[in-house]
Amino acid sequence: MFKLKPRSARRGTAIVAGAAALALTLIGCSGGGSTEPIPERDLGTPVAGEVKAGAFDGTTLTFAGSGGIFQDGQTEALWNPFAEASGATFNQDAFDAGKLKAMVDAGNVSWDIVNTTQFDTARGCGTLFEEYDYSQIDVSKIPEGTITDKCMVPQIMYGLVVAYNTDEFGDNPPTSAADFFDTKKFPGKRTVSQSTYVDPQTVEFALAAQGKDVANLSPDDIEGAFDLYKGLGDDVIGWTTGAQAQQQLESGEAVMGLVWSGRGYGAAAAGAPVAPMWDEWMIMVDSNGIPKGVKDKQAAFAAVNYSIGAEQQAKMTELTSYGGVNVDSKPKLDETLSTWMTTEHLDTGIAPNVDFWVENYDALSAAWAGWATGS
Amino acid sequence: MTDQTVTGGIAAGSAPGAGGGTPRRRIPSNWRTLLLFVPAFVIVTLFFLAPLIDVFIRSITDPKLGLQNYEWLFTTDANIAVIVRTFGTAFIVTFVCLLLAYPYAYLMTIVGDRARNALQLFIMMPLWTSILVRTLAWMVLLQDTGPINGLLAAWFGIGPIPLIRTTFGVALGMSQVLLPFMVLPLYSSMSKIDKRLLPAAANLGAGPITRFFTVYLPLSRPGIFSGGVTVFILGLGFYIIPALLGSSKESMISALIQQQISVFLMWGQGTALGIFLLVCTILILVIVSRFNKNGSLFPGVDK
What we know:
Chain A has 15 helices and 9 strands. Chain A is α/β, with parallel strands linked by helices. Chain A starts with 5 loop residues before the first helix and ends with a helix.
């Protein structure tokens, strides 16, 4: 066995201390990588879905999305065609808000476009996300009311909808948010988001069921919404991932669920007897966010501008089942998909109160943490 | 440094000690050997120590200097509930693993080589399967409309018995994953026990129960401690199994940390939780090492 003599031990300590100092210095330096400013290219007036051929030769962009068939569809319908038309190279990564914060704090941002929610871009606008220069993006075809803050261009439109089992309730389906909470009229287990990810629409849905106007909320309403869910007792089961929500619907474990429209469609497409309730549903919009300190803002804007073209959006919808954000987009839908298409039912959807949730995020997150940890 | 000085150093150092004693101890060029440790030190410092210091500093400075993150940790009811639950679940899992692993490890010490290899293979095989795949399999088996409840309904007309989204489901999934970490130290400890001691005790009049509790169990204690500590500490950090097999009522500290870091972006609170978990782990190690005869945590490691 190797043993240290006191003198050597002291030297050992010195070496460790030296190594520690060196390491800390290295870490300290790694933050501020200097980058040459990229000269502005002349791209002309932006038109949604178009980009000047070869304008971004040699540029590399990275998109961080939420994975699965959703990101595969985005890659195929939006980013790869942009790369081909503009000469840019497009990389894919997985989005995580914590990782984004780490990148921005360290001043070393390796993502150019991220897929996140309208609440996150609103909350982090100016600190985590760059403000858009809307003169570089053609937003004339974006559905009205979907740009909810200065740091977002919509990515998709979808919804939080009640999906119910048609074998159970086919003749007498639920027709309101209140029905979701009525276990006498509609007996059985219902599944609802209990993931660690805070979902204001889940809260808004309960408030709508209580007859509250979502456009006009007060912070005192928040606890009441959770009490409504807790009041379901053993009849409420939670889902922590979209895949789990779909699985619970497919297996028939939940006779009803408040789920993302794409997951309800997934269960129906897999053959489960599941239908959507369109009477009261919560509109959701995902944001294209540009991380703060992105290296080539102009290229990121151009890619987003390209992605919101009618053709691109139609293809994305066909591949992912999520609604497009171009009013001219005309995707070819099969029968199942057309029954789950949120963009066909905008008249009965309830738009989120983004400003309220950004303002009251602390109260929301504390209440949600309690809900998501069962206390 | 040149070859010349190295050789010179050793030659000069070993010369006086050539007469007797242990020459290795007399080499004054020990510090050169220490140089071999430098890469390891640098790596540990860069990738372990520095982030850890960063995490600690963040826990007392984010968003402002002070102990408010720890105050939040210990004064929020949801946190206390999750902490108590995390320790409770880890304890249950440790207990279940010990009950299952003890006879299994004992069996491994008394069978022949071929059977032992087979037993070892059975215990190692789960380690080679993705934790996610195994958890998803449990999800299918345990759900209300799954095969277990299906059989119960078909044969006995009962159910559905809640299996998934219960502490039982979480403990079951975790125990399956952690069982090898209990069996292997137990086996390593038991295989060192002199087999002749039991007949010797019997010869002195001890019955089977006395033999087990006064001879065998104390001798296998190092294995129980190191297996128990390993399982308990690993159990504290579980994330995916409580998330999939449990409901919100079974979520553990790791889920809380993930939520603070990745969702709320409240890193001060997240890092305070992380430091709390680390301190608990170190305390457990220190306390348990007091109970081991030679103060070491792992059987076969002499102090």
